[in-house]
Specification:
It contains eight helices and twelve strands. By secondary structure, the chain is α/β, with parallel strands linked by helices. It folds into two domains: 118 residues, Response regulator (Rossmann fold, 3-Layer(aba) Sandwich), CATH 3.40.50; 98 residues, Winged helix-like DNA-binding domain superfamily/Winged helix DNA-binding domain (Arc Repressor Mutant, subunit A, Orthogonal Bundle), CATH 1.10.10. One of its GO terms (molecular function) is transcription cis-regulatory region binding.
Length: 231
């Protein structure tokens, strides 16, 4: 059974969201602050975290920072009253898989959860490994190697790289990448994508060293593409 950790300091939100998620067959554990949630996280396996940001004792950002030190690719969604673009940008830069501002529809959150879990569910054995020398990417386990060395990527970085590897040479507009990876169209938050691309390029370059590999190229005025491996 899929286990969701729900974190919010408002009892009413915990109650109604738990009821909606439970009706879909999910196991839900609740916490009212980041420290309590972190204790739960350390004690049991969690498939998805849904967390508020502004909470007592430990806020959502500090909680997620602590979680990502334990599991770098942990999927999580922020639910919050912080509705400024700068807050969305920072949250997505942390690696958030979704960001929903309060007040929100519990039904909408439930659908977003179902869509996210469907994307990250491990695929059947034998169907998840993609080879694109010198890369090898296991979609089921969300693992990538470059020259047989593992890359430490966030979930969004993994999804971006997988998309580029499946479509070498194809130019993706920024708007298309937002729709495919974030399933939204925050064009005013385009810097979020730039940050993820920059981080991905940096990790690839550091691991490859002087060895050639296909690089993520900027196509000015159009978007990004995966180039050749001769440079």
């Amino acid at each position: 059974m899929t286990h969701i950790l729900l974190v919010d300091d408002e009892p009413a939100i915990l109650d109604i969201v738990t009821r909606y998620l439970s009706k879909e067959g999910y196991q839900v554990t609740t916490a009212t602050n980041g420290q309590e949630a972190l204790d739960h996280y350390r004690a049991q396996a969690v498939d998805l975290i849904i967390t508020d940001i502004m909470m007592p004792q430990m806020d959502g950002y500090d909680f997620i920072d602590a979680v990502l030190q334990l599991r770098e690719d942990q999927p999580f969604i922020f639910i919050t009253a912080k509705d400024q673009a700068v807050d969305r940008i920072y949250s997505l830069t942390l690696g958030a898989d979704d960001y929903l501002t309060k007040p929100f529809s519990p039904r909408e959150l439930t659908l977003r959860v179902k869509n996210l879990l469907r994307r990250i569910q491990p695929k059947k054995a034998g169907q998840s490994v993609l080879s694109y020398a010198p890369f090898a990417i296991d979609e089921g386990q969300h693992r990538v190697t470059l020259y047989d060395q593992p890359l430490q990527l966030s979930l969004k970085e993994f999804q971006l790289l997988a998309l580029f590897l499946k479509n070498p040479g194809r130019v993706f507009a920024k708007s298309e990448l937002f729709l495919k990876i974030w399933e939204t169209d925050y064009m005013e938050d385009a810097n979020t994508l730039n940050v993820h691309i920059h981080s991905l390029r940096d990790k690839l370059a550091k691991l490859a060293g002087q060895r050639p590999y296909p690089k993520i190229e900027t196509v000015w005025g159009l978007g990004y593409r995966l180039g050749g491996g001769d440079s």
